Amino acid sequence: MILLQSIVNGLLIGGVYALVAMGLNLMFGVMKLVNFAHGEFLMAGMYVAVWLASLGMLPGLFGIYWVAIPTMFVMAAVGFAFYLLLLDRAARFGESPQILLTIGLSIGAQGLAQVLRGSGFRLQPNPVNGAAIHLGGLNLQLGPTVAFTVALIVSMLMALLLRMTRFGKSARAVAESVETAEMLGIDARRVYIVTTSIAIGLVGLAGALLIPYHYTFPNVGQNFVVVAFLAIVIAGLGNVVGAVFGGLLMGVMQSLTASYFDLDLSTAAIYVVFLAVLLLRPQGLFTRGRRTL
Amino acid sequence: MRKIQCGLLALLGVILVAPASYLKSAQAADKVEIAVIVPLSGPNASVGEMIVNATKLAVEDVNAAGGIKSLGGAKLTPIIADATNDPQGAITTTERVLTQNKVAGGYGLALSPLTTAALPSFVKHHVAVVTSAISDALVTPNNGGYLFQIAPKGSAFGNQEVKFLEFLNDKYKMGITKAAILYVNNPYGIATEKGIEQLAQKAGLEIVLNSAYPESITDASPLVSKIQQSGAQVLFPVSYISDASLLLTALRSAESHVLVIGGGAGFIWPPIGQSLGAKVDGLTSVASWNLDSMNVKGDAKLEGVTERYLKSFGTFMPEQAGEAYAGISVLAAAIEAAGSDDPAKVRDALAKIHVTGGSGAMMQPGEVEFDANGANTRVFPVMIQWQGGVPRTVFPESAATATVMKP
Amino acid sequence: MRLAIIGVVWTIAAIAGVAIESDYLVSVATTMVFLGLWAQSWNVLSGLTGNISLGHSVFVAVAAYVTIILQQRGLSPLIGGILGVAAAVVLAAIIGAATLRLRGPYFTLATLSAAAVVLSLILHYSDLTGGPSGIAITFAHDAPLELEFTNVRAYYLIATALLAAVTMVISLLRRSRLGFYIAAIKSSEEVAAAAGIRVALVKVTVFCLSAALTALGGVAYVFYIGFADPNFLSGLTLSVQIALTAVVGGTGYLVGPIVGAMFYEAIDAAANAAFGAAGGWDVMILGFSVVAIVLSEPRGLCEMAVRLVRAIAGRMQSAVA
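Above: the input entities. Below: the structure tokens describing the complete assembly.
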């Protein structure tokens, strides 16, 4: 029972990691960009969501979740601006300057958040916080359960998007080889713009799903971003659907180590698992050979 | 592109020149400066903010009462600086403030690692620092003699929590014998945990779980799992803001009936009250200071201070703010007693001081006195219980102004 | 010739630093020098090979802790420091060998993870390391053999000497056989291997060299600060700072990392001084300055300066013509 509960807990928090990781992986797959500011976009999404929630909530248990869609769109717009203002120019830079750019953005954004909204910890009181679903002796915290469910749905939608739509096919082409794609008439820049917008929109959605039970504060992104990175590498960089499983795996690892070993080594465990996967199967656990998206 | 570059170079120029402009003018004769160095950026910025808010009130009160009368009514002037989130930043900031200003004393740095790192700077400049950091290791004979800990020691925290449990056990015949301790893996958590462990054993409690957890935890369900596995009847968690909330809501979702006696910090500061709303009522915790302890409630002026805090800053006066108010007031009293703004003389005055009234009496039990190592010999931690959305002092009897509800 | 220039610059810097009256400015300068030292050492690995490490703080931590722990047991840091550096080199050899086949973000995340694991271990084995409370080095009097000095200028001198030494080493490295191998590998690993270069050995050697120089700085640094804080010493923040300063200054230039460190620390200190009390502004200014610099010149401040000089020289030439 403890084992099962542990695994379930891990899957739930893993769902959150997965949602955060999806956008990150999309950006890497298509643009080969490692976005170190991803955690701060999560934070920004949380601030947007929490502000919307403070304006009012719908009646009912899930009343706070109305903020999810508007937050996602707002953050998609932010992603759009992010690309045009910053990434567009940086597209021609090498890897080091790109990483540096996002690191600088990450640091600056944390400061900006504190300047704009103060250092306080916010959580809009709502019925989801502290509620749980009891299923056959197992305990599922409501907030993470909703996030987990949405993560699964969104990943399926993303998979469909990438396989079926014109954008999806263009994105996969660009991910495979920019030169070839452009030769075939695909406007890589347009693909980049849409990709960034979707990616940041996704992490904004993740933020909206966190606010019912997790505090919002300027540095909150830092607690999630590193695990998100580990998840996407484990899954296979660029493998958007695989990123979900990567996130779930990280969550389960964290939970099992915490339950069965020393709590304070649970974060170390994630890194150790990560290193093991990296060294034994560097292309990721969930990629078949060299598939890019 | 050219514009950005020119702008950057200009910014660079200004920035490199700016520190040089700190060749300060001679100290104005009608001011006495004190340094307030606390984290104002990073994850602990909210703690720093509480302290800065209280500083404003304390300084207002000192000056309204005539300033430092033994220096001709000189106005107390705080120099507020960001200790940042790491020891390097704390040291640089402290060096800057102490080198560029003639301060009579200081208050800071709120967190034990930052205080430890910056202490040699204070010693070198012969400036006394009053601190709310609780680590026992700060008040040892080799701390240089310039540190004055106004808060209770970490071990005292833990001791008081166990005494409170015994009190509850007695009063409500709870029959609790199995205890779990979960503490955040930082000096605050460790110091408090030691105190709990020591006294729990003496009190005959069986410690069925004693574990540290990482600071940046995002999911408390493994903690709840461990608690349930251990069969504990009482939980002594020591947590900061985010983890306290995650833990309490995880316990609630698991429908756990374990009695929770919090270790301060995240369990007593305003955020937990805001996020849990009415559900916070009944939660108990230890605290360095609380706004309605006997010494405050019984004094109209001090009560007025807590009301002013609420009016000016929108929340009840939290623990760190009360301590800061007391600490700055005691510092001001020492400057007054020393009759000089020479920091070494102020330090000597602090070592001898015995505050029994006035603003310094904000710290329970209304008296402050330091021993040879800088520890506050009079203070003791109080136990609070959230009632009506505000923490009320319920233990020990000498400080309590409310009755504890059955948790 | 270049070595001589480095020597002269060092002498001037050393004298200038010691002569400054304000202890605060000397300590800012000292921090600048340590950061520059680490950025230079980092550049040996990441600038020369193109693999970005975000775990370099681990070498600072390992060396610092080994030295302090041995000092607690009576061993002078002068010897303990050597052992600390050795320990860092051993760790680097292990990490370097393990990450041989990793490239780009994979390599970066592996180094990040290594530092995180070591941090966890330091926090966990608190009986040995003092855990999250760290280890404080308190002393009231000078003890050169214990690396304990009451005057911060002593640490300034040590740091500048180390920085000068590291810069000389890098200067020599670039022209050496090893430097040639490194450049070849960076250009194309397959061709280099085909040409008979022992790629694996070179890569691990570079990693170890970079780690050793970083560790050297770590030993001196922990005595300068007087306090070993594991979250900082083995933390991501420090690793990021090191990488950031090197790239902001310009990894292609010998003095690039030094320029980067000067810039970073200057902005950090100035922003804290001017805006620290305002909560968040100092951090914001620092981060966005970095963004601005990268956008306007991705190859770093040195490149920016060079272009500016060329532009001015060009303007002057056409004015004369």
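Note for the figure: The radius of gyration of chain C is 20 Å.
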